[in-house]
Structures are given as structure tokens and as C-alpha cells.
Write a structure and sequence with these properties.
The complex is a heterodimer.
Chain A: H1 3-14, E1 18-24, H2 33-43, E2 48-51, H3 62-73, H4 78-91, E3 97-101, H5 103-109, H6 111-121, E4 125-128, H7 139-145, E5 149-150, E6 152-154, H8 160-169, E7 174-177, H9 190-203, E8 208-211, H10 217-224, E9 229-232, H11 234-243, H12 249-273
Parallel strand pairs in A: 1-2, 1-9, 2-3, 3-4, 4-5, 6-7, 7-8, 8-9
Chain B: E1 19-20, E2 23-24, H1 30-47, H2 50-64, E3 70-72, H3 74-80, E4 84-89, H4 99-112, E5 117-122, H5 126-138, E6 141-147, H6 148-153, H7 155-163, E7 167-171, H8 178-191, E8 196-198, H9 209-232, E9 238-242, H10 247-253, E10 263-271, H11 282-285, E11 287-291, E12 294-298, H12 323-330, E13 334-340, H13 341-355, H14 361-376, E14 382-387, H15 395-401
Parallel strand pairs in B: 4-14, 5-6, 5-8, 6-7, 9-10, 9-14, 10-13
Antiparallel strand pairs in B: 1-2, 3-4, 11-12
Helix pairs in contact in B: 2-4, 4-5, 4-9, 5-7, 9-10, 13-14
Classes of the chains: A alpha/beta, B alpha/beta.
């Protein structure tokens, strides 16, 4: 069983909605990444998403665009992110790590090199935003060969036919984009979200994570009612952007994640009582 | 003036999923898949409908002023001392460049799809002006994204778009130029797909755009091919066009693809020379990668980060190139060469003095190479240079290069 499957199985057994924080790798600088990853876990993360910075992050809003620019200015490369994950693994064998990025990072390294390097560092999944199943080429075979799961996005406007196609190749979990828009957008409609998650569950056995639009404990709690996992990105990336110089950045990040965790768990507790 | 319906086996270079060999495709996030599929279906349906073609033809004739002339540049020919040089006068199209061929067609398609809001990206502002123009003509709301630096550099075009009723939104992200405007337009589209049509300005972006824009720009080559045969009684030895994203070049090349005796030359921006690293010549000095929804040649770092480009011509200052050009390069049907800023400027001045035409700095790149090529050919031969736009927009740039403040 993969690290991702084990994590979701453990969460399900404990009646716990998984929390998946996203941070852009190498922001504010690649040397801090290991400490920030441990801080995320200490705050209550079940799985970690690391953004691989790209110069032209078309699917991201201004917060993550700025983080990509900071990370690149600090000299971040996919190789450095892999080094950080390998060091993270020295102390944490359990928490799955997913690289979320753009196709051109894979194109530049070569798909095989990229997958091999990520796998040997201890990365568990790849979510490549602009690499839909139709364009994945050799990636599914390479991923299978190296024990890496391919995570796919499903949008509110994804057709039933495409959902089938995605479900056939997706591994780990399905990442449901909660709204039409870029990362960090506002206004989550939880009724629509429930319909969307139900549609996914009809075709896929995989756990469903929801992201794009979850910004605080309250929205995290609301999403937790319908999803197996909640992804929070821009809100944390913004905190890193504002406090990148602070010496207690890991502690601040840990506290922010703990607050999201509390939002999710309180909602769950209320449900149990009612 | 039929567009894609004109028989041409090479038109099938793009497969149904928008691949040109190993290039093109649809590398976008899931949120864009549905709108791109909707657009593809709408276009394929429209393409079979004679009323769609008739409406575009009517607009191209009465509103744009087509057909544009094929003009024998006699004094330039004498000066070059070789093949007869013909200029395809896209500079005489409404708004002063070939860009309007595409915006007219896409706006007709948008109206057909019931979209009330048009968005576009623009670099120097030519595509933005052409989009604002058709939006005004058809009564559609129009938002144009433009890099913040370009907004400053191209104040006249910004004002022109506003006069035409468009809203211009400066983009502060990234390098604050064309590629960032394109990113932002895509983000807008993702958020407003229900009522919004995104008019891309070049043969770039995800499928179906490279095919759609090419089909709409083919009118240049269809006219030129007919005109040169009427005048010369024969096909030209060569066709030369500048390549940024590559829409004017694909437009004039495409109807000649099967005429293998016609050499095709695409001219990229050599900037300060390829050795300087300051240029915008991905086909000559870049490598394949994925940007803006398609695989093609890119200017990028070893890790795949898109790097800044340079050209005196804003319209060529783009780190990517349309995927069909990448394909034509790989199968060697077209040749891609470069011309520096300095050479383009000299060609700009020559055409002004020699023929009484101020060319766009983009087109001046094609002129510089075309004149050189003409000199190598015999006086019995003819070649066509695509004069893709007029140079009025560039006079401040040219003046500044010469230390003159207007």
C-alpha cells in the first residue's frame, strides 16, 4: 500500500478529515523548506503538497505567483526541492509528499529524470496542473515504474466523460477544484461542492480532496463535511509571504495549520453531537 | 476568400487533437478543458456552415478592406539587384496590420456562440486594438490584458483601445509583458468561461487556437498565391514573413505548403545577436517545452523557467512560437532565420525612402531578410515579403534609437 493510501486509510479509521497544506517549495528560500515541512506536520498536516515554482504559473492566483517569483529568485530548482524532501524523510517516513507543478519542469529535466529523482527523494505523488491525461505521454508508465502516484484535478465544469477518463488514470486521491478560477479565489459554494464531490464518488473509489478557495478554519470546516481531505494553499503561502524574514516562521506556520485543523475537527465534533 | 475549406492537403498537418507532429496539443489545467472543448466543437460546426464563411468574407471585404494589394516594389527590387520583390500589403488592412483578419473571424464565432464578453491579451497593442475594434463593431464588451511595462511603452495604443470602448487592464506579474498578459487573460477566462470568449492574437495557445487562428489568417496566403499567379503567371521562388507568435507567417505560408518549389522563410527577432543572448528567437536558439497550453520551441533556462526576451519590435518580443512553426522547422518545409534590431532598422528606413511605406518594425525583419534573399536570386524570379503591418506605431521607437525626442 502506498504512503498516500495508508494515510487516507488511517484517517478514515480515525474518523478524521485529512488536512493537506500547500506551500510553494523554496519560498522564502530552499534552505528553510525542511523546517517548514516539519512545521506543517507538527500543526496537523496529514499530507504535504509542495509547489514546484514555475515562471509562468497560469493556473495560480497572485499569491502563489508571487511565491513562485520569490522561490525562483532564491535559486530554487526541482533538484533542490528533492534534496529537501530527502532530508525531510530522515525524520518523517510517514507523511506523504506531493509535488504540484507545471509541465515545463518535467519537459526540461526529461520525464524519466524528473520522476526518478522525485521517487528516490521520497516524493509520493505528482500533480502537474497543465498535463491532463491526454497529454501525459510516458508519464503514467514512468510513474508506475517508480512507485509514484499521479494526482489529477477535477473542476466544476469537468464533463462526465472526462471524469471517467481522469478516474481511469488517477492515483492517490482526486483533487476537486472547488470553483472556476485560479488558486486563492474567494466564495466557496458548499452546496455545489457537495454535488461535485458526489459526482466524483460515483466514478472513482479514490479519496476526494477539495481545494482552491479554502482560506480559513471556517471554510476548511465547511469543506470537511463533504470531502475526505481539505487542501489549503494561498492562505499559508500568504503568511509565508508576509513573514518570510521572521525567525519564528516555522512556528507561525505550525500555528496556522493547527488553526485549520481545529476548524475541521470542531466541525466534525459538532456533527457527532447533532 | 474561403478560409479553411479551400482544398489543401497540408491543412491536415494538425490532427484532430491539435498536434503538429510532436508539437501543439492542449496543456492546460482541468478548468480550461471544458471551454476549449466547447470552442473546438463550435468552430468545427461553424467551419461546415457556409453562412459563417459568408459573414467573415463580408466583414473582411467591407470592414477590413480585403483583398489587400500585392505590390511590386520596383525601386526596392532595383536596389537589391535580384528577384522581383512583391509586398503583400497587410499594412493597408483596417487598423494597420494583419491582426484584424483573426479578430474579425473570432468575434463572428463568439457572437455565434452567444458570448457577450470578449477578452484578449496584447503586447504592443496591435492585437488589442484589432480586438477592441471588432468588439465595438459588433457591440460586445471588451477587456484587454496588457503587461504593465507595455502599457507605459505603448500609451497611444492604450488610449486607442479606450477610445474604442475597451477596458485595458495592466498586468503587474512576472516580466510585465506579453507572456504575462496571456497568463492573466487565461486566468480571466477560467473564472468567466460561461459568458466570455477569449480571442488569442496569434497561432499560439492550446488547441484549437493554433488551428483556428491559422485558418483565419490563411486569407493572406490565398490572396497572395492568386495575385502572384495573375501578375507573374507563376509561383514565387520564395515567401518571407516575420515570426513572433507566427500568425502572419503561417497565414501566408500555409496555402503554399504543397508548392514545394516555393521556399518559405520565417524571420525571428535576432535582437542584439544570438550570441548576446538578448533576442527572441526560440526556433533558432531555444528548445522544445510547454508554455501557454502547447508544446513548441521556447526561450528557457536549463530548468525550464521562461526567460526574458529582447527585440526592438514589441510584436516579436515573445519567448514562444506557434507549434505549427516548430513542426515546419522539424520537417524542414520552412526555414527559420534571424535578423537583428540594427538590420531591421536599416530595412525600415530603406522601405520608407525607397517606396514611401513605413513598415512595422516586425515586418522590417522580413524585409531585411527578403532583400538579402532577392539579391541572391535571379531577376527572372519573384519573391513575396509579407508586409504584416504599418510602422506608424513604431515612429517613437525609431526616433528614440536615433536620440530624437518627439
Amino acid at each position: 500500500m502506498s504512503r498516500i493510501s495508508q494515510t487516507f486509510a488511517a484517517c478514515r479509521a480515525a474518523g478524521r478529515t485529512a488536512l493537506i497544506p500547500y506551500i510553494t517549495g523554496g519560498d522564502p528560500d530552499p534552505q528553510q523548506l525542511v523546517a517548514l515541512m516539519h512545521a506543517l506536520v507538527d500543526g496537523g498536516a496529514d499530507l504535504i503538497e509542495i509547489g514546484v515554482p514555475f515562471s509562468d504559473p497560469m493556473a495560480d492566483g497572485p499569491v502563489i505567483q508571487a511565491a513562485c517569483a520569490r522561490a525562483l529568485a532564491a535559486g530554487t530548482t526541482p533538484a533542490k526541492l528533492c534534496e529537501a524532501v530527502a532530508r525531510f524523510r530522515e525524520r518523517d517516513e510517514a507523511t506523504p509528499v506531493v509535488f504540484m507543478g507545471y509541465a515545463n519542469s518535467l519537459e526540461a529535466a526529461g520525464y524519466e529524470t524528473y520522476v526518478e529523482r522525485a521517487a528516490s527523494a521520497g516524493v509520493d505523488g505528482l500533480l502537474t496542473v497543465d498535463l491532463p491525461p491526454e497529454e501525459a505521454g510516458s508519464l503514467p508508465d514512468l510513474a508506475a515504474q517508480h512507485g509514484i502516484e499521479l494526482i489529477y484535478l477535477v473542476a466544476p465544469n469537468t464533463t462526465a466523460a472526462r471524469l471517467q477518463k481522469i478516474s481511469a488514470v488517477a492515483g492517490g486521491f482526486i483533487y476537486a477544484v472547488a470553483l472556476k478560477g485560479v488558486t486563492g479565489s474567494a466564495n466557496l459554494d458548499t452546496t455545489l461542492l457537495a454535488d461535485q464531490v458526489a459526482a466524483i464518488r460515483r466514478v472513482s473509489q479514490l479519496p476526494v480532496a477539495v481545494g482552491f478557495g479554502v482560506r480559513d478554519a471556517a471554510s476548511a470546516g465547511a469543506v470537511a463535511q463533504v470531502a475526505d481531505a481539505v487542501v489549503v494553499g494561498s492562505a499559508l503561502v500568504q503568511l509565508i509571504g508576509e513573514h518570510g524574514e521572521a525567525t519564528d516562521l516555522p512556528e507561525r506556520l505550525r500555528a496556522a495549520v493547527a488553526e485549520l485543523r481545529r476548524g475541521i475537527d470542531e466541525k466534525a465534533a459538532m456533527e457527532v453531537r447533532s | 476568400m474561403a478560409i479553411a475549406t479551400e482544398s489543401n492537403p497540408a491543412a491536415s498537418a494538425a490532427s484532430s487533437d491539435g498536434r503538429f507532429g510532436s508539437f501543439g496539443g492542449r496543456f492546460v489545467s482541468e478548468t480550461l478543458m471544458a471551454p476549449l472543448e466547447e470552442l473546438t466543437a463550435a468552430y468545427l460546426e461553424a467551419r461546415q456552415d457556409p453562412t459563417f464563411h459568408a459573414e467573415i468574407e463580408r466583414e473582411l471585404h467591407a470592414f477590413v478592406g480585403r483583398p489587400t494589394p500585392l505590390y511590386l516594389a520596383e525601386r526596392l527590387t532595383r536596389r537589391a539587384g535580384g528577384a522581383r520583390i512583391y509586398l503583400k500589403r497587410e499594412d493597408l488592412a483596417h487598423t494597420g496590420a494583419h491582426k484584424i483578419n483573426n479578430t474579425v473571424g473570432q468575434a463572428v464565432l463568439a457572437a455565434r456562440m452567444g458570448k457577450q464578453r470578449i477578452i484578449a491579451e496584447t503586447g504592443a497593442g496591435q492585437h488589442g486594438v484589432a480586438t477592441a475594434t471588432v468588439a465595438a463593431r459588433m457591440g460586445l464588451e471588451c477587456v484587454v490584458y496588457m503587461g504593465a511595462d507595455d502599457v507605459k511603452r505603448q500609451a497611444a495604443n492604450v488610449y486607442r483601445m479606450r477610445l474604442l470602448g475597451a477596458e485595458v487592464r495592466p498586468v503587474d506579474a512576472g516580466t510585465r509583458t506579453l507572456k504575462d498578459a496571456l497568463n492573466e487573460a487565461m486566468r480571466d477566462w477560467v473564472a468567466h468561461v460561461d459568458d466570455t470568449f477569449y480571442i488569442i492574437g496569434s497561432v499560439a495557445g492550446p488547441h484549437p487556437y493554433p488551428t483556428l487562428v491559422r485558418d483565419l489568417q490563411r486569407v493572406i496566403g490565398i490572396e497572395a498565391r492568386r495575385q502572384i499567379q495573375e501578375i507573374e503567371g507563376a509561383l514565387p521562388a520564395a515567401v518571407v514573413a516575420c515570426v513572433g507568435g507566427g500568425s502572419n507567417a503561417i497565414g501566408i505560408f500555409h496555402p503554399f505548403l504543397d508548392d514545394t518549389e516555393v521556399a518559405l522563410y520565417g524571420v525571428e527577432a535576432g535582437g542584439e545577436g544570438l550570441a548576446s543572448g538578448r533576442h527572441a528567437a526560440p526556433l533558432n536558439a531555444g528548445r522544445p517545452g510547454v508554455l501557454h497550453g502547447a508544446r513548441s520551441y521556447l526561450m528557457e533556462s536549463p530548468e525550464g523557467q521562461i526567460i526574458g526576451t529582447h527585440s526592438i519590435s514589441a510584436g516579436l518580443d515573445y519567448p514562444g512560437v506557434g507549434p505549427e512553426h516548430a513542426y515546419l522547422k522539424e520537417c524542414a518545409r520552412a526555414h527559420y532565420v534571424t535578423v537583428t534590431d540594427a538590420e531591421a532598422l536599416e530595412a525600415f528606413h530603406r522601405l520608407a525612402r525607397c517606396e514611401g511605406i513605413l513598415p512595422a518594425l516586425e515586418s522590417a525583419h522580413a524585409l531585411a531578410y527578403g532583400e538579402r534573399l532577392a539579391a541572391e536570386l535571379s531577376p527572372e524570379q519573384a519573391l513575396i515579403i509579407n508586409l504584416s503591418g504599418r510602422g506608424d506605431k513604431d515612429i517613437a521607437t525609431v526616433a528614440a534609437r536615433e536620440g530624437i525626442e518627439l
